[in-house]
Amino acid sequence: MAFNWFRRQHTDSSDTSSPEKQAETPAATPSPTESATAPTAETEQAVATDLLAFAKAAYKNIQQKQQSQSVETPTSEETTEVVTETTLETTTETLSAQKVETLAEVTPSAPEPPTENVPQTPVVTLEENSEKTSTEAVTPPQEPVGLSLLAKAAAERQAKQERLMATAIEVTEPEEVKPTASATEVPETTEAIPELDFDEGFLWSAEVLAAQGRRAEDVSIEEITWLKRLRQGLDKTRRNIVNQLKAIVGQGPLNQAGVAEIEALLLQADVGVEATDYIITALQNKLREEALPPEQAIAYLKQILRDMLDRPQEKSQKQFFAPEKDAFNIWLITGVNGAGKTTTIGKIAHLAQKSGYKCLIAAADTFRAAAVQQVKVWGDRSGVEVIANPGKNTDPAAVVFDAIDAAIARQSELLLVDTAGRLQNKKNLMEELSKIRRIINKKAPNAKIESLLVLDATLGQNGLRQAEVFSQAAELTGVVLTKLDSTAKGGVALAVVQQLGLPIRFIGAGEGIEDLRPFSSYEFVEALLSG
Ligand SMILES: Nc1nc2c(ncn2[C@@H]2O[C@H](COP(=O)(O)OP(=O)(O)OP(=O)(O)O)[C@@H](O)[C@H]2O)c(=O)[nH]1
């Protein structure tokens, strides 16, 4: 049973991704701390206790999973005594004193952009028609950590943290948390997970997953790492707006000065005029009705943002954006030069491969000499075949044509089509894109076709101008927002949905193969506004 990274749940072979089935997974529900009624000190305490228990159980399970993976080569030093609880309590107790220092000591690891000179790739040229597939192992890059920023967030959450720690000793582990193997099979040690601290970022990530109905035993190291990465990626945006927003929104009914300040903050984060107007009006209406304490006002603001981000996909009635299992899906990836198309293809191929989909890549960026080589490197890293034509000045539509044949012959479930970067004002290149789209429509009329525009978040509002022309040429169905880690303009996500009316399907927050995930409005808004 593979974990489906698109749908965030375990799936089996009988799984389909029809809307009905997709609705089985609980929707992202607001965090317990965001309920409409004011929480009492008692309920807050209970929630904090629950969250700590959840986080500890999740940490313990990740630890056990890792140990069970290495259990095949036991050493004489292994012990079957269960001492993990002590470890977690010790970790928790020392967290307050150590966390800021620990965070400050972590050095971000260098990302792993693909190199141009890789000797072997799993490419299948149209001439060769080889069946060879790369099985080269992929090593996920280590998570770079935003140091002072995380430390700042940690300091702001200090009060809550203190409560969590105060209850740590009394916590009883939830009974439903089952280890992945029996205690005799899985030795537990006092060792913490080397690449995963039980720190403030872990607690925050666990809280976000718990609020979405996830079970502690299903939480994986990759999910925690991604959430920490996402929050860290949005640090710049958050630092610019959140504290000031909180201060203003928490003051009760908005006066003119407050409105002007919020307006400036949102525009600064590239939320855009249209989306900013919408947010302010919604906030004003609510705050006129009742004076909300700061935490509840922020909770209401989060709700507004989530609703905005989810609106475009309400039409499709799909809760998750995933390739349909046992069907032929074609995802056409387009965008201007350097937006991150090839990188996105590599990351999606990796997710698809991990999630158990039969995947293929079409190297239809025949414009740039190194592009085919680059996508081959990504194919190699994700273990996915690449269909390419090594000839010069090849017609990209012809590559797509052949790739569809190859995908059908191999019974591939997902064909990812890489295209050359093009500026929307280059008429001939946009016509070429239309031709590619026509070929897909004609050659695979029964395929589930998605056409995704890759947008570089660092371009902010400027990036949005491309969308309309691409929409006509490629019949866009969604957006991939990349480089959220390198910008203070993370608010552009709101502009995308409000101005383009297109759903955000994936977000990228780094150059590594694990640094892209399907978009979740809940996680995005939590990361954007987490204090
Ligand atoms: N920091 C960061 N860099 C990214 C992200 N996604 C892509 N990049 C980087 O952006 C650069 C361009 O990425 P590519 O995937 O080559 O972009 P492209 O759209 O295929 O480029 P063309 O084929 O030239 O149009 C590379 O250096 C990537 O590593 C991201 O989410 N974060």
From TrEMBL:
Composition-biased stretches (Low complexity): 24-44, 70-96
Membrane topology, record value: Peripheral membrane protein
Pfam families: SRP54 (PF00448), SRP54_N (PF02881)
Highest taxon listed in the record's lineage: Bacteria
Subcellular location: Cell membrane; Cytoplasm
Protein residues bound to GTP: 335-342, 418-422, 482-485
Keywords, sorted A to Z: Cell membrane, Cytoplasm, GTP-binding, Hydrolase, Membrane, Nucleotide-binding, Receptor
Subcellular location, principal: membrane
Quaternary structure note: Part of the signal recognition particle protein translocation system, which is composed of SRP and FtsY.
Protein name according to UniProt: Signal recognition particle receptor FtsY
Organism: Fischerella thermalis JSC-11
Name of encoding gene: ftsY
